[in-house]
Predict the 3D structure of the following.
Amino acid sequence: MKHALKIGFYGGSFDPPHRGHVALARLGQERLGLDRVLFAPVGVQPLKRDHPQAGFADRVAMTKLAIADQRGLELSLIDAPRSDGRPNYTIDTVRALRASLAHDDQIFCLMGADSFLSIGKWYRAADVLVACDFVVASRPGFDLGRLAAALPNGISVGACDAPPRCLALSLHGPGHRESRLYLLPDLDEIASATNIRTALQQGADPQTILDPAVAAYIRDHNLYQEGA
């Protein structure tokens, strides 16, 4: 009998993907036993008024390079640009992913703590938070109380057991649905895609935070250059 899988969903612009993204996914695998983590570049992110600096095809190609040969990390196109031009809302993506999996499989939505702080602005935020479990990673010393304060109206919080080296909250939301929010408070490798793009525009070569294959792709395709 096939055992239920733990599937990590890691959506984002990945503009560009960097070692911090991979480190977060690895931490989720280590602490929560995720069988697979799906890296899903987003077509149109609702909360960002500016379009990604690299096109969707380039971000897909770079993400594929960033996770190549990484066990359990896979590229997913489930968050590709929609044919109707509508933004990619997480609630729609999670439901589409759920429909593609076995009934007993679990979905864990991965993100950094800074991204989670905007959760209250998400489309149907309360519904999203109980549509799957969440895994939020932060740098050491991050005030985890900020995460609870960011929860939207319609979500209440309770205590629950947590795996080793994790913190966890039980979330209760619309329709008497429940989920869990797992907090990973010791992600050492933190990077900012915005800072990486700025460094690249200034002629720097941030090899320490970019996979060499991603850095080569950026050079070969003249991405993130001044005037590009």
